[in-house]
Amino acid sequence: MFSKACEYGIRATIHISHQSHNGNRVSLKDIAKAIDSPVAFTAKILQSLAKNNVVTSTKGSTGGYEIIENNLNKITLLHVVKAIDGDKIYSGCGLGLNTCNAHKPCPMHDQFKAIRDELKMMLETTSIKELTNGLPQGMSFLKR
Hints:
This protein is mainly alpha-helical. It has a single domain, classed as Orthogonal Bundle (Arc Repressor Mutant, subunit A). It is built from 6 helices and 2 strands, in the order αααββααα. It has a two-stranded antiparallel sheet. The longest helix is centred in the N-terminal third of the chain and has 18 residues. One of its GO terms (cellular component) is cytosol. Pfam families: Rrf2 (PF02082).
C-alpha cells in the first residue's frame, strides 16, 4: 500500500523517536542499520522528513537526527506518509485507472474509497509517540 521509501520512512521515524525519547540523536548510518536500508536511500528519505519538519537534523560531530520531545505527540503517521508519498494514497483508484471518480467510478470505487477513508483516519490519529511506546524497552526497532 505504501511505497518502499514510505515504509522505510515510517521505520526511520519510529527509530528516531525511540532514540529521541532516550535523549539521543542518531546518525544516518545508525538509522540505516536499524531499519535495514541502504545508507544513500535512507539519506534521501531523511532529507524529505527533515524538509517536512517530521524530524530535525543537526550537523557536526554531535549532530544527527532527532524529534523534539514536544513534537512526539503531534507527529502522526499522516505526516510521515505525506512527506514521503504525498496525498496520492487518498485519491488513487483501486484498479489504477486515471478516470475513476465519484461521477465515473470503477467497479471497486465504493469499496476502495471506504478502505482509503479508514486508512486516512488511522494515519491521522496514530502518533509516532504511540508507536514508540509500544516497543519493548531497549529495542528501537524489531527487524524481520
